[in-house]
Design a protein that fits this description.
By secondary structure, the chain is mostly helical. 72% of the residues lie in helices and 3% in strands. The protein is built from 13 helices and two strands, in the order ααααββααααααααα.
Amino acid sequence: MAEIVAVSLLNGIVYGLLLFMLTAGLTLIFSMMGVLNFAHASVFMLGAYFSFQLGQWIGFWPALAIAPLLCGATGAAIERYGLRHVHRSGHVAEILFTFGLAYVIEELVTMAWGRNAVANSVPPTIDFALFSLYGSSFPAYKGLMMAISVAMFAILYVALKRTRVGLVIQAALTHPEMTSALGHDVPGVFVLVFALGSGLAGLAGVIGGFMLLTQPTLASAIGPIVFVVVVVGGLGSLAGAFIASMLIGVLQTFAVAIDYSLADALRAGGVAIARGSPLYDLVSVRVSTVAPMAPYLLLVLILIVRPRGLLGKRDV
């Protein structure tokens, strides 16, 4: 039992930190600009594909630096030549634009790399066991992902709350006219924020591409869980996104590891449900079977109990 708990907890933390890497950019964009970017997971997918292609050409470590920059440049182009012109039509137009953009990116990826998954395997430089826990080896690339994720949270939090650049960004987004009058380039700030958020998604894609299957449907597969994390943590809250990512990561990992059903628990308590009983099929469902539903059940619970999320400032 101790082995299952320890290994599941470690895997849950790894998965939670990956979710935070992915949701940090989306949270940053929403908190700074009020734009709910439905194409964010598609930029994450681009990061995985860019790193795969660059890794074949120039190696993993240069790809780790260049792929997020390419995703950041993609995000800057999206804001400058797309969202800026749509913004004046309101939030519904922004949502429709980013929703359609996600489909465009998926088709472009299909045209460039095909419909089948690419062999985005862990590079040899980080493909070794970092340590062993109860006989299970912990790979180095997961340790690298954890270090990057924690560093990302610390740097973002300090940059936004303690530096002059962070204060200018927040001022530009809450009082754009006054900030512009003081000589700051407000449209440039918007481009910078969107580029930074997209770059963070690309960085998550570089590492996440090893853990997940790099294929054109990657964005549609990971996208829903991203918005669950953002809503549970609280729209626009970076700390809330971090807490929600860890909570969902650990919850889903433990749910997968628990190979028991309610019928097993009742049987252990001396209560047996007959096979022909109307409730037998329901109580016999194992927790591991419904594990993919766990984040969404948590979302429903949070919306009932606290509609603004864990650390959100306003209701969803």
